[in-house]
Design brief:
two-stranded antiparallel ribbon; 13 helices; membrane; transmembrane; transmembrane helix; electron transport; iron
């Protein structure tokens, strides 16, 4: 069997892992802006913690989707065509969230700010739920026929594993975002984020753990996938203990490791399938039946070996440059931008 399909399955898993870990805390911070912040200054502190990096983190989503399209076109076609409804909602939520981040500070009108704050929070919630549901579906299956087409209506994707995956990523993002705020913010935001992680982390992570267990039980997980799942639970316990002790760096590393191990357990548990069929196992799409030609995968490997280190190096540099904490006193005074632009045009 060709090794390159396996290599690219691992590469795509790593890309999704990068997205979940980096964009995960962005989405969590966006939700905390609505659910946890107590004042406008709190929200501005939260937004400034992710301001320099949030758009760069979305590169991992684009890269993961593009890699699926190029390396496994049958996987991409079957999954994305079956998920038109949720993926369109995710796309709209991504747009709403991005516009909200860029436009909320253009005017000081409280109603204007409130609308965009809500947009950021709802957009982050929908994106987290939609991406989590999509990943849960690709790991547990869809009703696919022999041609790889979905059988059933437009909501055939709405299954128990999909809901678990959606809630799992929402819960993980909330915890991951809280521990990130503990690292990057100061003042009341830091204190409330620490209390949230210490109090709610176990409950937030339950759906993700259940999704992982579902995958293991459905496919009779290997010793390796069960071991990785156990490491995820151990990492979560470590992170929770650190959060309760207000050891912020350890809490962040613990919960990030938990998310990484859970994702690794899911991908290893479903291998070699990339999209199982819930109708007949003979219709499963695997890394070998869904992959592109060896030539295509070879060219992609060369391009990835050149481009991926550049992306990683640039993102690492940007995180290093913006490593300082965001304090309430470092937030500049709010001022109107849009009215000033209009007045300048009138002149």
């Amino acid at each position: 069997m060709e090794p390159l399909p396996v290599v690219w399955f691992v590469a795509i898993a790593v890309l999704w892992l990068g997205y979940l870990l980096l964009e995960g805390f962005d989405l969590g911070v966006g939700m905390h802006m609505v659910f946890s912040a107590r004042s406008e200054n709190d929200r501005r502190v939260m937004l400034n913690t992710i301001g320099p990096v949030w758009d760069g983190n979305e590169v991992w989503l684009i890269t993961a989707g593009a890699a699926m399209f190029a390396a496994f076109p049958h996987w991409y076609a079957s999954l994305f065509s079956a998920l038109y409804v949720p993926l369109v909602l995710v796309l709209l939520a991504l747009i709403l969230r991005a516009v909200g981040i860029e436009y909320r500070g253009k005017m000081t009108d409280p109603r204007w700010i409130r609308v965009w704050n809500t947009g950021i929070g709802i957009g982050s919630l929908v994106v987290a739920f939609g991406i989590g549901a999509a990943l849960a579906i690709t790991s547990t299956g869809l009703p696919l026929n022999a041609a790889g087409n979905r059988v059933g209506g437009p909501f055939a994707w709405l299954t128990v594993p999909a809901v678990l995956g959606g809630l799992g990523l929402v819960g993980f993002a909330l915890v991951h975002g809280a521990t990130f705020l503990g690292l990057k913010a100061d003042g009341p935001v830091r204190e409330r984020a620490g209390r949230f992680a210490a109090r709610w982390a176990p409950m937030c992570l339950v759906p993700a753990v259940l999704w992982t267990l579902w995958v293991q039980l459905q496919f009779g997980g290997s010793a390796w996938s069960w071991t990785v799942a156990a490491l995820a639970v151990a990492a979560a316990a470590f992170g929770w203990g650190a959060a309760r002790a207000r050891r912020e760096r350890r809490a962040f590393l613990g919960f990030a490791s938990c998310g990484a191990f859970l994702a690794a357990s899911v991908f290893t548990g479903m291998f070699p399938r990339v999209l199982p069929s819930t109708i007949d196992a003979a219709h499963d799409l695997t890394v070998w039946t869904a992959s592109s030609s060896p030539y295509t995968l070879g060219v992609m490997t060369v391009v990835a070996c050149v481009g991926l280190p550049i992306i990683v190096a640039y993102q690492a540099w940007s995180y290093w440059v913006f490593r300082a904490r965001v304090t309430p006193g470092s937030i500049p005074s709010a001022h109107d931008v849009i009215p000033a632009v209009l007045r300048a045009r009138e002149r």
